[in-house]
Amino acid sequence: MRDLDDERAYAERCREALRRMVAGARENVVIGEDTWGDRYTAERLGFYLKTLARDLGEEGDNPPFFGLIAYGADAGEHGGQTYYLGRRHISDAIGRPPMVIDWRAPVSTAFYQASGTDPRGIETRRRFGWSANALTSFEDEHLAAGDTSAGSDLVRREIERARVGPMRDIVATIQPEQDEVVRTDLEVSVCVQGAPGTGKTAVGLHRAAYLLYAHRSRLQRSGVLVLGPNRAFLHYISAVLPTLGEVDVEQTTIEELLSIRTSSTDEQEAAAVKHDARMAAVLRNAVYARIGRPDDALVVPDGSYKWRVNRHEFDAIVSDARADVTTYLTGRERVIARIVASLQRQAEARGQNCNGVWLRRMARAATPAVDAVWPNVKADEILAELVSDRELLADAARDVLSPDEQAAIAWPRARKPKSARWTPADAVLLDEVSALLHRGPTYGHVIVDEAQDLSPMQCRAIARRSEHGSITVLGDLAQGTTPWAARTWTDQLSHLGKAEAEVIALTTGYRVPAAVVELANLLLVSLPVDVPETVSFRADGRLRITRADDLRSAAVDAVRAALKEEGSIGVIAADTEVDSLADVLRVDGIETTPPDGDGRVAMVPASLAKGLEYDHVIAVEPATIIEAEPRGLNRLYVILTRAVSRLDVLHCRDLPSQLKGTRA
Ligand SMILES: Nc1ncnc2c1ncn2[C@@H]1O[C@H](COP(=O)(O)OP(=O)(O)OP(=O)(O)O)[C@@H](O)[C@H]1O
User: Fold this and answer.
1) Span of the secretion signal (predicted)?
2) Cα 209–Cα 213–Cα 219 angle in degrees, nearest 5
3) pLDDT given at position 275
4) Distance from the CA of 192 to the center of ligand 1, in angstroms?
5) ipTM
6) How many whole angstroms from 508 Cα to the centroid of ligand 1?
7) Which helix (H) or strand (E) holds 619?
8) Is residue 515 pLDDT above 70, yes or no?
9) 475 lines ligand 1 (CB under 6 A)
10) 174 pocket-lining for ligand 1 (C-beta < 6 Å)
């Protein structure tokens, strides 16, 4: 095996090869520009070459590899081979074995899965330590010799490192149970129930990158979508996929995905009804209530002649189309098509030649009569009229919503869609109505983070967008904080249209240190969900619970002390308290930033903390955090589990009973 100097020399050769790949790709762009054939081919080839040149160029001086596996002589097809693994494939000449293999290639699986008890033919697994892109060390595990030592020091250091800035990729240290999720087949939908910090988000992002590698052409056409809880979270994770060479994954929130401008919010009761799965039936009733029955025959003038579809036939066409309708507007198209076919039969029987122009003219002429029984409608008209008109609503919601529930969603006065002030819950309803009218495109794969918080109606919006694809559902029932948060995965998965998805539990926490996990687990037992406790990977870290008469000066002291140590600091408090806390800190000369800001000290409203992490968390007044919302205990659980190295809990009021008796 190579020594450190040899490995450095090899790293330099890999970088040179990469530079040649960049130069070659750029040259191909130029040659391609001169020689491209037809326009379509030229565009596709040009796009491919430019993307390749850009991706390679962006690699810069990054470490070319992070590990290697060396097989023993009798390891079958890999016998005697050594493979270097990196974020991307590097080769120095066509036809020669690659110098570095992409971490997503099938052969890389063994790097992540092999162990002293299951060496998979590997003699040595080597992990490299890099500092500012310089190779500084390596560490060997002699797997064939049954090396079952407590684990790698490099992995432990990477997991325990202080956090600064946005989330990073974990390709060098993916753990076996995470790797299994990452590499699950594209056709298979999975649901990961993971305790805080078990790497759900990281796994989801790496899965996106893996799937794009393994099924590039299919997924480039249909697309991969990542859904996160809010903008601050998306900002936090935004660098991971580009570092892995994947820049074409759409990352957004469910609200932005629905792309409906909202300008109002709902009262709690109204939101609860609007997000309830029963609304799907109400909306379906409202849409299909638009279809009537013909009163008369349909008569279409054609020159001096008139063609007729008698009332009985017209009625049969409408009810047939209604019986096997896929969407409301395709049903309407089908009615028009059947009517035109009937007219055509009559005309042809009289010896008339029915060309395309004639057929289109007949369709136009029949449309007003069809409009009277199967009108052309828009989603916003349907919803605005439904909630503006108590009678319409009562008809659509009969046997589905109680009178009180109907009253909760009814508008106090009628409005036209143009003057409607839509709420986020309305956006979900509008999306449902749109889908009843016509089908939208679907993605090849959708990754849904913090999925426990989605309402049934939001789940349905996602289900529609992954109808012909698969999904990865990531979440933690214990971290559910919305009024409609799921209490079981069975229900949530069926709303997501993937009832068959396997639920996989991740329980090893890579963020939260053991002392903090112990505190959070005290809360966990009182939450009304059945999930396994977290087991921390980390023995380091510190928990301090401080009772203070003056909470604000205690917060200033805690931030000052935290600033003396390395890493990011998050001060998390009930939403109503953050502005005044930020003011107090500012007066003391400590500037804070919002959760997605770049400063060292972030001031984080409790409602935005989900999915984020800070090296040092200062959680202010648990009792107020709990009281702020119905699922306040779950919220507190989320907040306590944001800490990577140190957690300060500051309180002036009594601690919640669940946290009493802690040893901190
Ligand atoms: N295998 C790993 N190697 C190194 N770091 C890891 C690994 N797995 C997870 N981490 C790190 O642990 C932290 C928590 O990961 P992540 O945010 O993905 O967890 P999560 O399960 O989504 O957490 P939560 O539900 O609390 O938001 C991140 O900093 C992530 O980079």
Assistant:
1) none
2) 85
3) 98
4) 13
5) 0.99
6) 10
7) strand 614-620
8) yes
9) no
10) yes
φ and ψ at residue 115, rounded to 5 degrees: -150, 175
Residue 31 pLDDT level (bands cut at 50, 70, 90):
low
Q: What's the 596 CA to ligand 1 centre distance in angstroms?
A: 18
How far is residue 173's CA from residue 175's CA, in Å, rounded to a whole number?
Answer: 6
For residue 253, say whether it is annotated as part of any ligand binding site.
no
CB of 427 closer than 8 Å to CB of 262: yes
d(CA 202, ligand 1 centre) in Å: 6
Using alpha carbons only, how large is the chain's radius of gyration in Å? Answer: 30
10 Å CB burial of residue 454 (0-12, 13-18, 19+) is buried
Q: Is 198 annotated as a binding residue?
A: yes
**Residue whose entry in the numeric block shows the structure tokens 């326009």:** 39
Burial of 304 (0-12, 13-18, 19+ CB in 10 A): exposed
Q: Name residue 474's beta-bridge partners.
A: 192
Ligand 1 atom with the shortest distance to the CA of 202? 18
651 lines ligand 1 (CB under 6 A): no
Centre of ligand 1 to C-alpha 449, Å, is: 13
445 CA to centre of own chain: 10
Distances from the Cα of 103 to the Cα of 75, 109, 442, 553, 608, angstroms? 20, 8, 28, 49, 33
Ligand 1 pocket check for 192: Cβ under 6 Å: no
pLDDT score recorded for residue 92: 85
Q: What is the rounded distance in angstroms from the CA atom of residue 375 to the CA atom of residue 317?
A: 15
Confidence at residue 326, expressed as pLDDT on a 0 to 100 scale:
87
The ligand 1 atom nearest the CA atom of 476: 25
At position 475, the amino acid (one-letter code) is G
Among 510, 535, 608, residue to substitute to test ligand 1 (most atoms within 8 Å of Cβ): 510
pLDDT band at 55 (very low <50, low <70, confident <90, very high): low
Give all domains of the chain, ordered by start, each with its CATH number: 4-161 (no CATH), 170-255+389-508 (3.40.50.300), 298-373 (no CATH), 514-659 (3.40.50.300)
Closest residue by Cα to atom 18, ligand 1, is 199
**Ligand 1 atom with minimal separation from the 474 CA:** 22
Residue nearest to ligand 1 atom 3, measured at CA = 173
Nearest-CA residue for ligand 1 atom 23 is 197
- DSSP structure class, residue 199: S
Residues 6+ apart with CB under 8 A from 517: 509, 534, 535, 536, 641
135 close to ligand 1 (CB < 6 Angstrom)? no
Q: Which of 492, 541, 528, 537 is nearest to 645 (CA)?
A: 541
Instruction: List pLDDT tens digits, range 616-662.
Output: 999 999 999 999 999 999 999 999 999 999 999 999 999 998 887 66
Residue 567 identity (one-letter amino acid):
G
Residue pair 374/335 in contact by the 8 Å Cβ criterion: yes
pLDDT at 49 over 60: no
CA 298 to CA 302: how far, in whole Å? Answer: 13
Mean pLDDT confidence for 180-197: 95
H-helix segments, 504-550: 514-524
Q: What pTM does this model have? A: 0.90
If one counts every other C-beta atom within 10 angstroms of the C-beta of residue 493, the result is 23
Ligand 1 neighbour 197 (Cβ under 6 A): yes
**pLDDT over 70 percentage in the chain:** 93
Substitution candidate for ligand 1 out of 179, 238, 516, 613 with most atoms within 8 A of CB: 613
Looking at residue 167, the DSSP 8-state letter turns out to be -
Percent of the chain with pLDDT over 90: 73
Give per-residue pLDDT as tens, 92-132: 877 788 999 999 999 999 999 998 889 999 999 999 999 88
SS3 content of the chain, % helix, strand, coil (to 5): 45, 15, 35
* 3-state SS assignment for residue 534: coil
Mean pLDDT of the chain: 90
